[in-house]
Structures are given as C-alpha cells and as structure tokens.
Amino acid sequence: MYTDDNRMETMIPPPGLPGERRLPAETAEARRYNRLLRRIGVADLGLGLVLMALLLAADWTSSIRNFAVRIAGDHHSAALFLYTSILLLLTKLLSLGLDYYSFLIEHSYHLSNQRLRSWAWDQTKGFALNFLLCQILVQFLYFLIRLQPQWWWVTGWVLFMVFSVLMAHIAPIVLFPLFFRFKALADEELTARLTRLSEKAGAKVRGVYEWMLSEKTKKANAALMGLGRTRRIVISDTLLATCDHEEIEAVLAHELGHHVCHHMLKGIAVQSVITFLGFWCLKLAVRWAAIDWVHPLDQIDFANLPLIALVATGISVVLMPVMNAYSRFNERQADLYAWKSLGTVQPFCSAMEKIAALNLSERDPSRWVELLFHSHPSIGRRTRTAIAWAASRR
Ligand SMILES: [Zn+2]
Known about the structure:
With about 400 residues, this protein is mainly alpha-helical. It has helices spanning about 25-55, 60-70, 75-110, 115-145, 150-175, 190-200, 235-240, 245-260, 265-290, 305-340, 345-360, 365-375, 380-390; strands at about 180-185, 210, 220-225, 230-235.
C-alpha cells in the first residue's frame, strides 16, 4: 500500500502546495482522530482476548461443546461446525458496538460517505466471509489433529500457507470486489506513463485499476494487489480526483517499487517462517492443556479452540512491532525506487501532503506509536527523507 489506511499522518504542508487543512487546529484534530482509532483497535483486540480467556478459565468452552454435541450427536464435523458458529457469533456480538462506534467516528470527522444501510450490509458480508473461512480452517485443523496426533502442526502449517497464497491470489478478483467496485483505469495518458515506468524497470504489471473508494469514504489510498496473473495496481478514485498526473505517477512508481523489489513474495517467505513457529507454539499449548490445565482438554477435543485462538492472537500481537518494522523497511525501499525512477521527489512530497490531508493523518506521531502501530514510516519522516535524498544528489 501507499500509506496505512486510517493510520496516516497529517503533514505541515510545504510552501506552494494546495490544501484546506492547514490550520494548527487540524493537527490537533488529526491527533485526536488517530488516537481514537488506536484505542478502538486495542479495545477490540482486548475484548476478543478476554472472551477467549473467560471461555477457558470458567470452562464455558466445555459447556458450549457439550451443547453442540447434544444437538449434533455422533456427527463430529456438525458438532464442530455448531461450536465454532457459537464462538464466531459471540465474538461478533462483542465487537459490534465498537464497529458501530468506528462508523460514527468516521462520520463525525467528516471522512465517510457511507450510509448506515451500506455499512450494515458490509458488516453482514464481512461476517459471512469470516464465518466461511474460519469454518473451513477449523474443520481442516481438527481433521488433521485426529489424523496425525504427532505431526498435525507441520501439515497444518503447510496447508495454512497454501491457503494464504491462494487467498492472496484470488483477493483482487473475489474478496475485494465483495466490498468495492474496481474498473480499468480510463486515463490513457496515465496508463502510458505507467507503461513507460514499468518498462524502464523491466517489470510487467498486469493492469492498473481505479478503486471506487468514494462510494464509502473521502479517504484516498493505492495498493499493489494479487499474485501472478491477478497482480495489479489499484488507485482510489478519491486520489485520482485530488492529485495531478505527476503526483499519481509518483504513487504508481511507489507501488511499482513493491513489485520490482518482490515484496509480495518476500512477505510470503517471512510469513511462512513466522507461521511455522506459530504452529509449533500451538502444538505446545494444546499438549499443555491436555495434561497440566485445571480443566484438561484432550488434544482432539475442539473445546480447546479458544486456547488456539488465544495463542495465535497473542503471537500476532507480540510480533506486530516486528512485522511493522519489516513493513516500514519495505515501504522505504519502494519510496527510494519511486524517487530514483522519477528522478525527482517533488511530486512524491506533494502527493503525500494531499493524501495526508484527505485521510486526516498524523504527520509526526510519537516514536513509540510509530514503532508499535505503523506499517508505514510517518509522512513527516518520508518527506524529510525524500528531500534529504534529493539534496544528496545535487
Ligand atoms: Zn507501499
């Protein structure tokens, strides 16, 4: 992505750049808005973790399992389906209040174009998609635990990686179109510019698409999506409406940078190492629960699912700063590629300014906020680095 969605930084604009959000009060507003978003994110995560911990500590998980088995009888898969459905419903009910609060906040900061009905429909589709994917994963997981009590975690890891790559492959053609409309970029001059840029890089991108983001939000973004034949660059219509051709070219050059530096494939390699360690931790946790837990849960007993969710979420929270640091490293590489391929940093800096203004982003968040939460370097840091790079070449 070109920037963090929802987590970008408002710039103090360089002289000569347009933008309505230039008053000092805007920075305070951006700080308030971004602080609120972070708090909601942390609260949402905390609620999920507390629910899983409560299910285990109070042994409610066994009661729900007994209920599912009573209804489904001998059909193990049906009982597992019912048990997982109850857990997913509980989790969604718990987070629904915060989801609605986020919707209200986007409106109160005048960042949303979405009506309540459209938001509710997105929530329904999001839940249905999550429900389907979780059910598939959970059925596979317990099938493997029963089939290979010793090595399920290794086979599980392999299948999970295959599943992840498949999802990355189909995301631009199946998943994202569930929530957004995309169409081929109509602007011939822009398309010609991208073709020139990608030819210069010796890279082939399968297409550039306009992402109809304005139906939902006033915010702007761009991204590199998909793998292989589904690989494409998408640019939001909000960005196309705000930036001139030079600035959009800078955005495209940044996305092309991700492509040229093979960030997608490297990301999959990094993810495979981390998920291998994650599955190993899951194996240890499941064994521990079977022997040393106050309410012992056999390895094949799906009542241990909250423990698996708790450990998996715990690992991703602990690793979040590391993964964000890796992502920021990739973003810096893509930025450098953009400046080099264009030979100038001015359009990059002015595009950053416009995106920051559209998205109500913090220009210079505190260092710890950037380290913990940001997958992109702050916009202040990005533009300062760009200017320093340009100066070093004079
Ligand atoms: Zn990027």
